[in-house]
Write a structure and sequence with these properties.
Length: 262
């Protein structure tokens, strides 16, 4: 009986520690410093992204077999995960990434890549169909950039006023469903040509891998900066996009408390 009890206690202790080489997820409120490298680093000659304390990644079908627990403990505090494109395409790795990030207590959000050959309402419904409204999730993201690779939409570039109208319609449908105003992701060229600076009251996620946001988007405030497409993160095979949040650790905690889905 004594030996049996000792064996049971030993097994319970081992289970509490997690499997060897696979540590249990850290406390959800813990923020880890970025232990990233870059296969093609850039000198921004100004306020480098490393000066910000909260970093994360964005992922899509190109990233496979992510060890989310390892990635988190090396500085992946948040992740934006590609969910959908247009009105009928779902990223093949979305479900796996969504579940893995959630299990590792990574703050996660989903994004939609916009097509100009499908109505914004159809695209919003497709996103809603595939992205579960999950308590604690980050606001949904509308990815606005020209799409040169689509076999059906690459040549469609509506006037700026029409672009903004379609964006407003998608944003309105998605905001009603998730109860949070979406984030707008964009590139310098798309931002300029379509006057996205006219969108007031929205959080922006800005791509700029050669200049700082202040240089690439003069006068535009931002919440997230995608500063590298060639990040090297433990737990992730191959290059991955790196991002940083615009404020302090306290700013991050306050922003999440306000903007996460309930």
């Amino acid at each position: 009986m004594i030996l049996r009890r000792a064996l049971i206690l030993s097994l319970l202790a081992l289970a509490a520690c997690g499997r060897p080489g696979n540590p249990p997820p850290a406390d959800p409120g813990t923020l880890f410093p970025a232990r990233f490298s870059d296969s093609d680093p850039v000198d921004f000659h100004g306020r480098n992204p490393q000066s910000f304390p909260v970093h994360g990644i964005d992922v899509a079908r190109f990233q496979n077999n992510i060890d989310w627990s390892t990635a988190r403990q090396n500085g992946v505090n948040f992740a934006f995960i590609k969910a959908t494109e247009g009105g009928d395409l779902k990223d093949i790795n979305f479900d796996t990434h969504w579940q893995g990030a959630g299990q590792a207590a990574v703050k996660r959000g989903a994004y939609h890549f916009y097509y100009f050959c499908t109505s914004p309402e159809d695209q919003a419904r497709w996103f809603i169909r595939n992205v579960p409204r999950t308590p604690g999730m980050l606001p949904p993201v509308l990815d606005m950039e020209w799409n040169p690779f689509s076999p059906t939409c690459a040549h469609i570039r509506p006037p700026a006023a029409e672009v903004r109208d379609q964006m407003h319609r998608w944003l309105a449908v998605v905001e009603r469903h998730y109860g949070q105003r979406p984030i707008i992701y964009t590139t310098p060229e798309f931002y300029r040509k379509n006057d996205l600076g006219s969108f007031k009251g929205y959080d922006f996620w800005l791509r700029t891998t050669a200049k700082t946001p202040a240089e690439a988007y003069p006068s535009q405030t931002w919440r997230f900066w995608q500063y590298s497409a060639t990040g090297v993160v433990p737990g992730i095979g191959g290059d991955v996009d790196l991002n940083t949040f615009s404020g302090s650790r306290a700013d991050w905690q306050n922003w999440v408390a306000t903007r996460a889905a309930r």
